[in-house]
Amino acid sequence: MARLLVRNDDVVVRLSWREALLARRKEIRMPLADVRGAGVETDWWRTLRGTAEHGRRRPERFCLGTWRHAGGTDFVAVRAPGPVAVVDLFPGRRFVRLSVSTADPEGTVRAVRLAARRAQEGGPSGGARRHEPSRNGGGDGGERRSTRSA
């Protein structure tokens, strides 16, 4: 089962060896300063947005890999049934959401929120806030436009 961890100034999705083979990557690492919010979704399938781009999925069982949608790309490592820890990132980053089925999604989300708040405030790690306005006009992320050229 995938794990969502806080390591130094990063939020890390670490995959099991079997998941790493299917997703073709061992881990995802994003700066804590890029975290916009975190929460728990009780229905695993609600975290899936758009269409599968890379990775594997088995209907009603699991989804693993990247999903592309109008707002960007999400990384998902979810298993049915059960709640999912969801980490939303600022627009313009490599991924705009990380969705991971974990053994304790509530505890994981609490840890990510606390660490992200400290990182954005320039907490004990000494890191300054690294959030920059996105290229698509900023705002609260409600309006997302693709920056891909046709």
Mean pLDDT equals 83
**Largest beta-sheet details:** 6 strands, mixed
Distance between the termini: 38 Å
Based on secondary structure, the structural category is alpha+beta
Could you give the count of β-strands?
A: 9
Helix content: 10-25%
Helical segment count: 2
Q: In what range is the share of β-strand residues? A: 35-45%
Radius of gyration: 15 Å
Order of helices and strands: EEHEEEEEEEH
Which strands sit side by side, in order, in the main sheet? 4-8-9-7-6-5
Q: Identify low-pLDDT runs.
A: 125-150
Give the overall silhouette. globular
Can you walk me through this structure?
By secondary structure, this protein is an alpha+beta fold. Helices cover 15% and strands 37% of the residues. The protein is built from 2 helices and 9 strands. It has helices at residues 17-23, 105-120, and strands at 3-7, 10-14, 27-31, 35-41, 51-58, 62-69, 72-79, 84-89, 97-100. A 6-stranded mixed beta sheet has the order 4-8-9-7-6-5. A 3-stranded antiparallel beta sheet has the order 1-2-3, covered by helices on one side. A hairpin with a 3-residue loop joins strand 5 and strand 6.
